[in-house]
Amino acid sequence: MNVFLAVLWKDLVTEWRSRDRAAAMGVFALLVVVIFHFAWPGDDRARARELAPGLLWIAYVFAAILGLNRAFSVELENDAISGLAMVPRDRGTVFLGKAAASFAILMAVQALTAGVFAIVFEVLDWRSIPALAGVVALGSLGLCAVGTLFGAIAVRTRFREVMLPLLLLPLLVPVLSGCVRATADVLAGAAPSFAAIQLLIVADAVYWIASFVSFDYVLDE
Amino acid sequence: MSAAVEACDLAKRFGRHAALRDIRFEVAAGSALAVLGANGAGKTTLLRLVAGLARPSAGTLTVGGVPATRPESRARIGYAGHATWLYPALTARENLWFAARLHGVADARERIAALLDEEALTDAAELPAGALSRGMAQRLSLARALVHRPALLLLDEPFDGLDSPAAERLVARLRALRAGGHTLLLVTHDPRRAAALCDTALVLARGRVAAELSGRPSADSLERALAEAA
Prior knowledge:
Chain A contains 9 helices and no strands.
């Protein structure tokens, strides 16, 4: 618990002081929303509602990749990643701290993006906000788990900026499929489908357990 | 009592390249071993194996009788090198606090205050690590390595980038640590400073032990061994 809390604290404090991850992610996500808004014919509300879940998750996923790349590139400075690898506990606890910090930052960016998205596209009923927040949280849990694992792998490769999306996106298919389906239900004013939520819960559980177990080897050279 | 570090037929390969081969050595608890060699001889790889930051390809390596890849082994080790492992956005005190929390230090507040005092960093405690001079960052890095009271201190080219007074101060500090019972494993290419600190020395060349010198080798004998190994 000490290690988990220490890593979470360190990542959030360093981010609060620099705000470089949240700023890059937020600006990118908002830019995607604005570009889609200008590309969209304003009078076709039904079509907008149909495609909104996909557009929203495109903004979320690519913003998350920006942040996850940055989460480990700060550990390369002064070789601080070796300090994390020297933790005298299971290194999975380091994974938990890093993933939790990424999750907190991503959720803040997602909340801002969803607000702007709802205003620009006029697709969100305020009564759907709790359900949407739940779906986004479930999707982001899976995204951060597997993203943290592959972020740690990619950061030591030569083409780390390119490597993370290449490794991450194929594995995110189950999570994204569940997220987009559940988000479509919520934006339509219905409850998210049980099948989609089930898929998200199972994918999240698999990703968190697999990432926790394998992180010990990832931090080795 | 088991040796502080014991390596037997140790090897490390990176793909087809053998970085280390047939390495055997032992470091007695409370003693100091210097590992010398030219660039690429395998010194840092050896140190990272002892630290548990890499896994051996063959052979055995134990720290205090525990395999070096186990978390219990990492609890006995402090590591300071030319890379400081510090976070520039955190203050000096916060960097030490973070390291203390990672290692589960119970009396973290008192320990950090004592280390800041020993390293003459009390006045800089609230400065971001990124604002410290090279010498101050190196002292903070040493304090970070000592925060959990490790029995074994691994030092990877700790004199790199230091001016002469700062390097001499570090030698004095390491001598004091040694006198206090710490075991030192020092990787360096500087025979003079190795001779000032160590009881035994290993000279590596192309991943093998080219020479082993015991009985407090002099700087001249280390230089000769290095020249012969080249």
